[in-house]
Amino acid sequence: MEFRQLGASGLRVPALSFGTATFGGGSDFYRAWGSTDVDEARRLIDVCIEAGTSFFDTANSYSTGRAEEILGAAIAGRRERVLLSTKATFPMGPGPNELGSSRHFLMRACEDSLRRLGTDHIDVYYMHGFDATTPVDETLRALDDLVTSGKITYIGCSNFSGWHLMKSLSISERNGWSRYIAHQAYYSLAARDYEWELMPLALDQRVGTVVWSPLAGGALSGKVRRGQPVPDGTRSSQLGLARAGDTEKLFRIVDTLHDVAEELGMTPSQVAINWVLERPTVSSVIIGARNEEQLRQNLGAVGWRLSEEHVAKLDAVSETRPSYPYWHQRLNPRLNPPPVPVRTSVGTIAGP
To answer: Does residue 348 form part of some domain?
Structure first.
């Protein structure tokens, strides 16, 4: 397994990490993702550790804490062999202070996550979303106190806008507080909006990207094809294809994925994940699986590389015209060079 630096920190993380939204099945929404219990979770984690995928991602809101409990039980006795990340911000109950990024909520949310995970520290603690009702300095001071106390090692954010992240980084720098080293973001061949502002920001500020849903909610898994019904039991059949955007464009991308996969002897999902791994700023890609077969297939996305010709083909079919002002900035690439991967003998690094 390839390991990469997480942003400007000294932490090295595996290129593939494992997401646990499939653990628990605590609601209709999460049951559409999966209902993995402790025994099955333990087996999946065995497979991950054997493959070098030792970074496990969860959130307090996944099945209202049940995913954290299952993950904690599944890693019991081997905490020192894994990295853990979890998140807070989204509602954990009906009360007015059971959500958000206030000091009041975060202090309790962190303690609750530590208890459910059965650990004394969290390696990366994300703000699951931006809380516009709480002052940014209140959030960052609370997080810095949690870092100082040893309960959190690093902090990250997720689903932030560019100004959310840049303002946070500025406040952290001004006060000498811990800064966000990672941005967990939605990015795939079917959704390249991340490239317009957040990727250049991450390059400039050395923020590592941890990608969630690289298969666009299963739409790029190879199971969804033009003119064919979506297979029963898949996430796409239960949650729909809205996350993947324009359906006709999705089918063109999927057709190209199948062509490239056939040429390489890989699966469409392996090609789609490998493409994301080659993008600038990407430190790790979160893969998920309902069972061992899916997991082993996704783990096969590493250890090989797409050719420049295949990358160009996938880039072309998935290209999206950016919104203003990004399309205007692209009119003069000498002033605003697009971020592109720079290939080296040891892997792909970010570069303008």
So the answer is: no
Structural domains of the chain, count: 1
pLDDT in tens, 258-294: 999 999 999 999 999 999 999 999 999 999 988 999 9
Question: Residue 301 has what pLDDT?
Answer: 96
User: How are the residues of the chain apportioned to helix, strand and coil, as percentages rounded to the nearest 5?
Assistant: 40, 20, 40
Residue 257 sits at φ, ψ, to 5 deg, of: -60, -45
Report DSSP state, residue 230.
Answer: P
CA neighbor of 146 nearest in space, from 173, 109, 183: 109
CATH number of the domain within which 268 lies: 3.20.20.100
Residue 115 domain boundaries: 3-338
What sections of 128-193 are H helices per DSSP? Answer: 136-148, 162-175
344 domain-assigned = no
Q: Is residue 315 part of a domain?
A: yes
153's CB contacts (< 8 A; 6+ apart) are 11, 121, 122, 123, 124, 147
Look at residue 183 and tell me if it is in a domain.
yes
**CA of residue 224 relative to chain centroid, distance:** 22
Is the preceding peptide bond at 341 cis, omega within 30 degrees of 0?
A: no
| Residues sharing a CB contact under 8 Å with residue 203, sequence separation 6 or more, in sequence order | 280, 281, 339, 350, 352
Active site residues: 62
